[in-house]
């Protein structure tokens, strides 16, 4: 079956992946309807849907509400509208008419359908783009709004331009899955019945945010980890965003996602266009686990810049030194880290300008001459001699008022002349939407990377926008909300093109900038500033709903934990972090000789299964009635080996741990435990489970590596 099929007679398009179809229909009023989103349909089957009886009309309700794929404000439609504009004469309604369509075949695989609409009266066109691939059920969508008039027509104000409105089938009941959180408590999974009306998830902060994440999943309330259908979507945008889940009294449900937030608008002058970010959506069978694996594979295959590259074990110096940084101390830490098997040494905040505390120096990206009298070279050379890569912390989008940069260019920050400049963490936000600021920042970072053999940047962004003004903007100042992010993307793209070996981690006070947009340009993310292993079990569980372990930075830090004050055994801390990109962030100067020796063993254990964790298929294993046991299985793509990480937070009443049923193994095969040598039948592991040998203490853990025997 072709990925895009068209029936001109019925004005029907069927967009299909391996296991699903999304069907579009243009009705007699040129309204684009979402006719079907679910199992694969042929053109003939899709056309038969048009013969089904239409719902009865009710007073004050347009039956099109909740069914429109291009959902514009106008007429008797009062439900959520994904596209809202205001014309110079005050008219707000849109009356789009289809001008034409085209199908574009991409050289890297898949096809793209473009439907072009024009308002019946005003000079505005709206192109709807749909990209499908034959290897995945993820559909990528965006809009392009274009002012086609002349100077006499005046500007068009875009009030809202959601990238996609996804029309769901009738399910009877609807449940919404999302993640919620705050600083140091990000990506905690939350499932709730979808209420009637409009439920909006959003960030108004200028960045993705800790409080929510731009994705959602819908099911009928009966789906579990392994059974049932899931409809999901995710927005690829790293600025302010909003995702609206709408449930109408007619039991029609839509998901609509896009950039921006109220009351920010965009002005389109004649000849200008606005392209929205990608919004991806997918229908899957096989429960939430299958939905997650589909998204994980999409990120690995079509989002990340280096998807097949194994991320190194890193050490970060922050918790050992904080701002008390100098070259000899960093070298001593690097030497200790190398003995543990660390592959990437990252020096954190405090190396530059007058940065001896958090109130000075941001923006002055040159090494502190007292702390690094010969520059960064001696430290970098020693790190490389030890066989490790060298990484450096930067926060390029911020500036301290106490800095040479701010004293020279106070106009470069977001501000309104009539308002106080709110400082948070003693810093202000540089207006990266300004071309001169973006150009200056690229020059500084390019010079920093060029003059030093820097392999990795930990790119931080520690505060949201406030007083988001641009007093001397030549055009619409509200565009800074979009152009800041676009210039950030362009800066990252240019820096990576200039330095192909450079790898970048996205950080924003932990997980404050995590989305498919930033992942297109970075290699991993810092998941949370909270490194408490017990809390991270929940944080990482929610993270895994959409994002793969390949991008999830996870550190082992000191005990008691610096943030929560809670203690946990070293093995438990390591094995919790092994479920992602393993890092170490503790003060190695205080670790005992036995802890250092054990850490080296655990790092070696991780390296033996790293290819499974970072590139394999992830299965979240559930044991009914045991909420204290958390386990995850990583299976090689060829099915020949798997790793199981089991974590038991506490043990009650002396009960023994149940065997852990595994997933997706060959029932006819045998699997050998590479540590104990025990051999297990695949059918038994699937039906009766893997016996666990966990210590009786709280915070018990194990890592099991199973290899399929040949012959």
Automatic annotation (TrEMBL):
Matching InterPro entries: Aldolase_TIM, Alpga-gal_N_sf, Alpha-glycosidase_related, GH, Glyco_hydro_36, Glyco_hydro_36_C, Glyco_hydro_36_N, Glyco_hydro_b
Enzyme Commission number: 3.2.1.22
Keyword terms of this UniProt record: Glycosidase, Hydrolase
Keyword Nucleotide-binding: no
Membrane-spanning segments: none
Pfam families documented for this protein: Glyco_hydro_36C, Glyco_hydro_36N, Melibiase
Domain Glycosyl hydrolase family 36 N-terminal: 31-269
Catalytic activity: Hydrolysis of terminal, non-reducing alpha-D-galactose residues in alpha-D-galactosides, including galactose oligosaccharides, galactomannans and galactolipids
Domain called Glycosyl hydrolase family 36 C-terminal: residue spans: 630-706
Broad EC category: hydrolase
Family from the record: Belongs to the glycosyl hydrolase.
Record's protein name: Alpha-galactosidase
Native species: Streptomyces cylindrosporus
């Amino acid at each position: 079956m072709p990925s895009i099929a068209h029936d001109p007679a019925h004005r029907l398009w069927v967009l299909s992946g391996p296991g699903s179809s999304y069907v579009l229909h243009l009705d007699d009023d040129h309204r684009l309807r979402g006719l079907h989103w679910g199992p694969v349909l042929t053109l003939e089957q899709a056309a038969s849907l048009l013969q089904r009886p239409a719902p009865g009309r009710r007073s004050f309700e347009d039956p099109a509400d909740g069914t429109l794929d291009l959902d514009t404000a106008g007429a008797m439609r009062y439900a959520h509208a994904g596209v809202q504009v205001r014309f110079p004469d005050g008219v707000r309604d849109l009356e789009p008419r289809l001008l034409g369509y085209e199908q574009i075949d991409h050289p890297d695989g898949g096809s793209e359908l473009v439907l072009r609409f024009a308002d019946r009266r005003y000079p505005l066109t709206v192109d709807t783009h749909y990209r499908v691939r034959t290897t995945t059920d993820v559909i990528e969508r965006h809009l392009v709004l274009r002012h086609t008039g002349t100077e006499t027509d005046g500007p068009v104000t875009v009030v809202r331009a959601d990238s996609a409105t996804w029309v769901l089938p009738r399910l009877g009941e609807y449940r919404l899955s999302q993640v919620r959180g705050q600083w140091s408590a990000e990506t905690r999974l939350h499932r709730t019945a979808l209420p009637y009306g409009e439920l909006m998830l959003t960030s108004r902060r200028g960045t993705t945010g800790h409080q929510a994440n731009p994705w959602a999943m819908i099911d009928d309330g009966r789906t579990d980890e392994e059974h049932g259908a899931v409809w999901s979507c995710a927005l690829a945008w790293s600025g302010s965003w909003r995702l609206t889940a709408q449930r109408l009294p007619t039991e029609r449900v839509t998901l609509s996602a896009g950039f921006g937030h109220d009351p920010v608008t965009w002005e389109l002058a004649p000849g200008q266009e606005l392209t929205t970010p990608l919004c991806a959506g997918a229908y899957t069978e096989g429960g939430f686990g299958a939905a997650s694996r589909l998204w994980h594979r999409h990120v690995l295959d079509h989002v990340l810049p280096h998807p097949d590259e194994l991320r190194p074990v890193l050490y970060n110096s922050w918790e050992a030194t904080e701002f008390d940084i100098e070259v000899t101390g960093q070298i001593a830490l690097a030497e200790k880290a190398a003995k543990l098997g660390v592959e990437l040494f990252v020096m954190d905040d405090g190396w530059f300008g007058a940065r001896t505390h958090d109130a000075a120096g941001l923006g002055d990206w040159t090494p502190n001459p007292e702390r690094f009298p010969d520059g960064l070279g001696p430290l970098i050379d020693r790190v490389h001699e030890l066989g490790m890569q060298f990484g450096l912390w930067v926060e390029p989008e911020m500036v301290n008022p106490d800095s040479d940069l701010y004293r020279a260019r106070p106009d470069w920050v977001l501000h309104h002349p009539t308002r106080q400049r709110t400082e948070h963490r003693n810093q202000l936000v540089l207006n990266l939407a300004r071309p001169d600021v973006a150009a200056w920042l690229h020059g500084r970072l390019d010079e920093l990377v060029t003059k030093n053999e820097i392999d990795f940047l930990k790119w931080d962004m520690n505060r949201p926008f406030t007083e988001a003004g641009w007093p001397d903007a030549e055009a619409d100042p509200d565009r800074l909300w979009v152009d800041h992010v676009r210039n950030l993307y362009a800066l990252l793209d240019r820096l990576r093109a200039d330095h192909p070996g450079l790898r970048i981690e996205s950080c924003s006070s932990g997980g404050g900038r995590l989305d498919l947009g930033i992942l297109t340009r970075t290699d991993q993310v810092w998941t949370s500033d909270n490194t408490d292993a017990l809390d991270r079990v929940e944080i990482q569980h929610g993270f895994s709903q959409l994002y793969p372990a390949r991008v999830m930075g996870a550190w082992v830090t000191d005990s008691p934990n610096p943030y929560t004050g809670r203690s946990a055994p070293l093995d438990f801390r390591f094995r919790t972090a092994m479920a992602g990109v393993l890092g170490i962030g503790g003060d190695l100067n205080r670790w005992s000789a036995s802890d250092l020796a054990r850490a080296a063993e655990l790092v070696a254990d991780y390296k033996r299964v790293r290819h499974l964790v970072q590139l394999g298929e992830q299965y979240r294993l559930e044991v009914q009635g045991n909420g204290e046991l958390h386990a995850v299985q990583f299976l090689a793509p060829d099915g020949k080996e798997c790793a199981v990480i089991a974590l038991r937070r506490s043990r009650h009443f002396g009960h023994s741990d149940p065997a852990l049923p595994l997933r997706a193994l060959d029932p006819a095969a045998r699997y050998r435990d590479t540590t104990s040598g025990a051999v297990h039948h695949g059918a038994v592991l699937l039906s009766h489970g893997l016996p666990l040998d966990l210590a009786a203490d709280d915070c018990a853990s194990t890592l099991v590596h199973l290899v399929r025997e040949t012959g």
